[in-house]
Structure formats: structure tokens, C-alpha cells
Specification:
The complex is a heterotrimer of chains A (96), B (113) and C (500). With 96 residues, chain A is of the alpha+beta class. Chain A contains two helices and four strands. Chain A starts with a strand and ends in a 10-residue tail after the last strand. The relative contact order of chain A is 0.27. The model of chain A has no long low-confidence stretch (mean pLDDT 93). Chain B has a single domain, classed as Rieske [2Fe-2S] iron-sulphur domain (Rieske Iron-sulfur Protein), CATH 2.102.10. In chain B, 0% of the residues lie in helices and 42% in strands. In chain B, strand 2 and strand 3 form a beta hairpin. With 500 residues, chain C is mostly helical. Helix content of chain C is 61%, strand content 2%. In chain C, helix 6 packs antiparallel against helix 14 and helix 14 packs parallel to helix 16. The longest helix of chain C is centred in the N-terminal third of the chain and has 31 residues. Classes of the chains: A alpha+beta (96), B mainly beta (113), C mainly alpha (500). Chains in contact: A-C, B-C.
Chain lengths: 96, 113, 500
């Protein structure tokens, strides 16, 4: 059972939520948990043309999607933001 | 120049009674006490609660909200002492009761001093 | 032989100080319990309560009040008022009795401490009556709640609440233990009697009483007014003490006490009175908006009083003005979404007509809070009721203990104000809540919020309800059984029929 809590501010939500993930979870995994629990509940569902990204508060760039919670150096109840960006439907991406 | 307006007749407020009446477009608490007719700004100096919701007995006006008490004949605070109702000068001419509104600035409320 | 007027003997009867010979002043009145600033006794002995009362007056007046309140209650006992009340009004009563009853009872001991440890005789007398007042308030609340118990088990929380770890109750205990129960008598008096009682209780008791009367709930309305009428006497304890602090050159300390207690009370009353006035009271019965009541009772009257005394508005006043526009709206969303965690049955209060009122009173509401409600409404209309209760916990503020909220939707603004203190990270919902912690970290540092307890493994994520002492039969449910959303179908039908 996931036991690493992060404090998640999903863009558009009225308040922070606690998500339980793992130290080995990637940022994409964290986004999947957020989508499952919060999209279509407090914010609108994630459209097929969107993907979710994680960034630290006050950061302008997202964290790499394959970075893990452990690698990112998160502490328990680390505060993160989750936001939508357009999904690029190209075969090859530079930042994958 | 005084703003002397008729607020009511003696028949409108019997002795021992208080009523809120209007003089022009200003609301006035008219009280018929043993010492004569008096007129006051109708709000308690404590938290501006309407005095008409309270009681007038034995010469004392008691505010319903927090039981502050005022001498109906003078407007002076009975409990607490260091406050007072805002009084309008009253003149009784025959059966008619007049108040002088110019004596009080609009929107004034007595403070506890 | 005729009785003397109380004015003739009041001062003599009041003067109960003596010069101790067998123990020291300090042993009788330790400063931590009595007055941390150790103001001179000669100054404290000038304490003069403006509104005077003798025990004889007290008994007579209180008996009249009780007869008044209980006779209204008795007259309306068979009125079916509760059964016929709207779900919003029921939710309001359920929330009020669970949230408020125990606070009254706890205040009995707060005043008793002032009675024992106040060095000013007038303060001790007024605190004695204050303690009796709070006993009365606790009893009235429990007696009224007991009658309602036959109609809904939610009213069991009037007596049960303080023995639970429900998140709302933790938030209240944290706040009022801080203000009333863990400081010297003078600091507690200033925080409790001045900030809490002089300003904020008017919101829940007088303003709400007007809404209650509008709803025809004269029993509750009379109860609230009757309780608040006692406040003149014991709330006045704070003012003379504030003046003394200023006179002894302690204005900065006095200002800080006010700044801390005012904000802490603001957060509690925003969540409690804000939801009651702007969401639970039926639309056509609302005497005014929460913001309008705040403007009348707090921003106008309280500030005038503060400035009269030579004090200043708290430093965060601009932040307060912003918060009045948003905080209770965000809290209402959380209260509705997490309804199983509450002992009352919340309602939404956001049908089309209600939203129009909210938009009028709080311009921009539909672009912000309305955006979350749109998601909820869509889920209900599609029959996805499960999706209207989040399956993950909200983050709580380490000071006020309520949800860590901001502004949702198109003007999204959500910030976690964190602080690292002695190896532990704290999360605050506002800069002011963080500032309060920073004034006296050791006072607050040890407390674990419910989320801290989960994070530290003390409580399992799926063990939170049990930890909060809630059995499944007690979980809050949707107060209207989702019927309120039908108004949206009606609106849609009307638009389709009229081609608009």
C-alpha cells in the first residue's frame, strides 16, 4: 500500500489534497494518482488532448516525468502542483 | 435655524409607553415619562441595537440585547453609567409634540466616555 | 427597614483584596497564571467594570431570562418546526449544537481561572458571574439539543463532541485552548473577552438570531439572544485590562494579543458563521450576507472600539478584507465534499437562484468557486454520486486545523505557506497563521494535525473515520438527497423551451 504522502495543489482546485504515492513513483505516476482521485471530482476531467505535469511551487518548469519521488528528494508532505499541458501527439519527443 | 418638526400628538404615545415615530424622514424614539415626553435617537449606544425591541418600565429603558439601562427622563446611563442616549429637544404645544432635529448630527452615536 | 440601593454599597462590597501575611503575593498569584507582565497592583485595583451587577441583581435577571427562553421553547414544543424546516436549517442546527455546546462548557473553567488568579477585585467578581453565565449557556445548549435528539441522532454530538478527535472539533479545541485555557488570566481575558466575545460571538448569536426569526425558528432565535445578553457583563472584562496594559506602557504586547486572537477567531467564525449565513440559511430568509454582517459587526463597530482605545487595526487588515471574500466559500466546498467526516448533514446551497445571489454578493463567485460546483453538479446529474466525495484526504493547516484552501477555478490561487522548525515541516493556510506560529513556536510545535498523524503512521489512511470516533451511522450524508440539482434540469428545460 502506498505510504508516501505528498501535498498536491491540482490547478483549479479549491484546496490542497494529500496523495499517497511511493518513493519509487515517477512524476507520471503521481499525475496518474492525481487524475484518478481528483480529475472529474474537484476539477474537470483530463481531456485526451491534455497531459498532467508536476512542478514545485513557484517553479516555471515541470519536473521530468520519469523522475522518481526519491530522486526528486521529496520529504513527506512535500508540496507540489499538478497542472495540465497540451499533449504532443508526435512520434518522437525531445524531452522524453 | 432649527429643524423643528412635529413628530406626533400626545394621543400617539400614552404615559408609560415608548414608540418609534418619524419626524420628517428621521426615526425618533418617543417616550412618555412621568417627567414629560422625551425623544431620543432610537439606537442603543452600545451596539446600535433598536431600543424599541427592549422595555420601558419604572422610568427605565432597557435594551434587549445586553440589558444596558437608561433613565428615560434624561437619557443618562443607569448601568453602565458613563454613557447616554442621544436626546432631541422636545416641545409640547397643546396636543402636538415637536422635536428639534438640528440638535443632533446625522449618524451620531454616543460613545462610552 | 428599606434595602439600600446597590450603588450605595457596590464599591465597598467589591473591594475584596487583602495584604497577605502568611504567603507572598507571588505565591498567591503566580505570574504565569495571573499576569505575565506583572503590572502594578495599584493599577490593577483601579479595574472598574462599566456594567455593574450584584449577586442579587444577577439571580433576578438571569431567572427572568431563563423563564423567557424556556417558555418560548415550551410554547413551540409541539410546533414541528424542526420536522418542517429546510434541510439547510436542519444542517445549521446540527452543526451549531455540536460545535458550540462544549465551548460554552469549557469557558466555565476559563472564567473560574480568572476568578481565582485575577488580582483586580472587579475582574474577579465579573469573572465569577461569567463562569455562572457559561454554565447557563452550556446547560441551555444541552437542554435544547436534548429535545432535538428525539428527531435526529446528530444532536448527540452536543455532548459527545469534545471527547472525539473529529477534525472540526480538533480545530476548535486548538483555537480556544490557545486563547482561553493556556495563558495567564489577563492575557486570556483580553483574547477571550475582547476579541472573541466582544467582536465575533455577535456574528453567530445576534446576526444568526435574526435569520432564525426570519425562518420562524423563534425557539432557537430566543435562545441565541438570551445567551448573547449575558455577554455585556462578562465581555467587558477585557476592555479595562487593555487600557491598563496601554497605561503601563505595554501597548505592543496588548496589540499582539489582539492580533493573534482576532485572526484565530476569524478563521473559526468564517467556517461556522460563513457557511450558516451564505449557504445553510434559506435564500429568502437571509437577513444579509456573511460579508455584510462582518462589515457591520466587525469592521465597523469593533474597529471603532479598538481605535477609541488607542489600539490599531491588526497588521494584516488588508489580508482580512481579501479573506472575507473567499475563505468561507472554499471551506463550504470542503465541508460539502467531505460530508461523511462531519456529524451534520451538509447541503450545497448552490442552486441557480442561490448562485445568482452569491454572484451578486461576491462578484466573481461563478468564475472561481462556481467552477468546482459545476464539476459536482455535472457528476450528480450524471448519476455519479460516488464522484462527489473525494477518495483522498484534504490537507489541513497546522494552525487553524481546517482545510488548507485558496481560490479555485479561473483565478486559481492556492499557496502552502510552509515553515521548517526543528526538523519538522509545518504547513499553513495563510501568512498570518504562519506568523502566529512564529510568535511562540514552542506553544504550537508539538501538535500533530490529523494529516501529520497519517503521515507519521499513527493513523492509517483508511483508519481516519475511526480515529475521529465516528461510526458509519454517524457519517454526514447529503442533506437534500441531491434533490437541489433538479433546479438545474428545470433551468435547462426552460432554456430549451424558450430557445434561450
Amino acid at each position: 500500500m502506498s505510504n508516501f504522502p505528498v501535498v498536491c495543489g491540482f490547478e483549479g482546485d479549491y484546496g490542497f489534497k494529500v496523495l499517497m504515492v511511493d518513493r519509487s513513483s515517477t512524476m507520471d505516476d503521481v499525475c496518474a494518482v492525481a487524475a484518478d482521485l481528483l480529475a472529474g471530482v474537484v476539477v474537470r476531467p483530463v481531456a485526451p488532448t491534455e497531459r498532467l505535469r508536476v512542478r514545485l511551487p513557484d517553479a516555471t518548469e515541470p519536473l521530468p516525468p520519469t523522475l522518481t519521488v526519491a530522486e526528486a528528494g521529496f520529504i513527506e508532505l512535500e508540496t507540489i502542483e499538478i497542472y495540465r499541458e497540451p499533449r504532443v501527439l508526435a512520434a518522437v519527443r525531445n524531452d522524453a | 435655524m432649527s429643524a423643528r418638526l412635529k413628530v406626533c400628538t400626545l394621543d400617539d404615545v400614552w404615559e408609560g409607553e415608548m414608540r418609534v415615530l418619524t419626524a420628517g424622514d428621521v426615526e425618533v424614539l418617543v417616550v412618555n415619562t412621568a417627567a414629560g415626553v422625551r425623544a431620543y435617537h432610537p439606537r442603543c449606544p452600545h451596539q446600535a441595537v433598536a431600543l424599541i425591541d427592549g422595555s420601558f418600565d419604572d422610568g427605565v429603558i432597557t435594551c434587549s440585547a445586553h440589558r444596558w439601562r437608561f433613565d428615560a427622563a434624561t437619557g443618562a446611563g443607569v448601568n453602565p453609567k458613563r454613557c447616554a442616549l442621544i436626546a432631541y429637544p422636545v416641545e409640547v404645544d397643546g396636543d402636538d409634540v415637536y422635536v428639534d432635529l438640528s440638535a443632533v448630527a446625522p449618524g451620531a452615536v454616543a460613545s462610552l466616555t | 427597614m428599606a434595602l439600600l440601593n446597590s450603588e450605595d454599597w457596590y464599591d465597598i462590597a467589591r473591594d475584596t483584596n487583602w495584604t497577605p501575611r502568611y504567603v507572598s503575593e507571588q505565591a498567591l498569584f503566580p505570574k504565569e497564571l495571573s499576569d505575565v507582565l506583572e503590572m502594578p497592583l495599584e493599577l490593577l485595583e483601579t479595574f472598574d467594570e462599566p456594567y455593574k451587577v450584584t449577586y442579587r441583581d444577577y439571580v433576578k435577571t438571569q431567572r427572568e431570562k431563563d423563564v423567557g427562553a424556556y417558555s418560548v421553547k415550551a410554547a413551540l414544543a409541539r410546533s414541528q418546526m424542526y420536522e418542517n424546516a429546510s434541510p439547510g436549517w436542519k444542517a445549521l442546527l446540527q452543526m451549531h449544537f455540536g460545535a458550540v455546546s462544549f465551548l460554552e462548557y469549557h469557558s466555565v473553567s476559563a472564567f473560574a481561572r480568572m476568578t481565582r488568579f485575577g488580582r483586580a477585585p472587579g475582574m474577579r467578581n465579573m469573572a465569577t458571574f461569567g463562569s455562572l453565565d457559561e454554565m447557563r449557556h452550556a446547560q441551555v445548549h444541552l437542554y435544547f439539543a436534548y429535545e432535538y435528539l428525539a428527531k435526529s441522532r446528530t444532536f448527540d454530538w452536543a455532548q459527545k463532541a469534545p471527547r472525539t478527535d473529529n477534525w472540526v472539533i480538533i480545530s476548535e479545541r486548538h483555537t480556544f485552548d490557545d486563547l482561553e485555557h493556556t495563558r495567564d488570566a489577563i492575557s486570556a481575558a483580553i483574547m477571550t473577552n475582547f476579541a472573541f466575545e466582544t467582536a465575533f460571538t455577535n456574528l453567530q448569536f445576534i446576526a444568526l438570531s435574526a435569520d432564525a426569526a426570519n425562518c420562524g425558528d423563534f425557539s432557537f432565535s430566543t435562545m441565541l439572544q438570551s445567551i448573547q445578553s449575558d455577554e455585556a457583563r462578562h465581555a467587558q472584562i477585557g476592555e479595562p485590562l487593555l487600557k491598563m496594559m496601554i497605561d503601563s506602557g505595554r501597548k505592543a504586547e496588548a496589540q499582539k494579543l489582539i492580533d493573534i486572537s482576532f485572526w484565530r477567531c476569524w478563521k473559526q467564525f468564517s467556517a461556522l458563521s460563513g457557511t450558516c449565513m451564505d449557504y445553510y440559511t434559506p435564500l429568502d430568509k437571509r437577513e444579509g450576507s456573511f460579508k455584510e454582517f462582518m462589515n457591520e459587526w466587525i469592521l465597523d463597530q469593533f474597529v471603532a472600539k479598538l481605535e477609541d482605545m488607542g489600539m490599531e487595526k491588526p497588521w494584516y487588515w488588508d489580508l482580512l478584507l481579501e479573506d472575507i471574500e473567499v475563505f468561507h466559500h472554499a471551506q463550504q466546498l470542503g465541508i460539502y465534499l467531505y460530508r461523511p467526516t462531519e456529524w451534520w448533514h451538509p447541503i450545497a446551497g448552490t442552486n441557480p437562484a442561490e448562485r445568482a445571489w452569491l454572484e451578486e454578493k461576491y462578484p466573481g463567485w461563478n468564475d472561481t468557486f462556481g467552477q468546482v460546483w459545476d464539476v459536482i453538479i455535472e457528476n450528480i446529474r450524471a448519476g455519479r454520486l460516488d464522484s462527489t466525495i473525494p477518495k483522498t484526504l484534504p490537507m489541513l493547516c497546522n494552525m487553524h486545523g481546517l482545510e488548507l484552501t485558496g481560490v479555485p477555478g479561473r483565478k486559481w490561487n492556492l499557496k502552502d505557506h510552509t515553515l521548517d522548525y526543528q526538523g519538522r515541516r509545518y504547513h499553513f493556510q495563510s501568512v498570518v497563521d504562519k506568523w502566529i506560529f512564529e510568535q511562540e513556536p514552542e506553544r504550537y510545535a508539538g501538535h500533530l494535525s490529523l494529516i501529520d498523524r497519517v503521515a507519521q503512521g499513527i493513523v492509517a489512511p483508511d483508519g481516519v473515520m475511526e480515529h475521529m470516533n465516528m461510526a458509519p451511522e454517524e457519517y454526514g450524508i447529503e442533506g437534500t438527497n441531491y434533490a437541489w440539482v433538479e433546479a438545474y434540469d428545470d433551468a435547462l428545460t426552460t432554456r430549451r423551451a424558450t430557445g434561450t
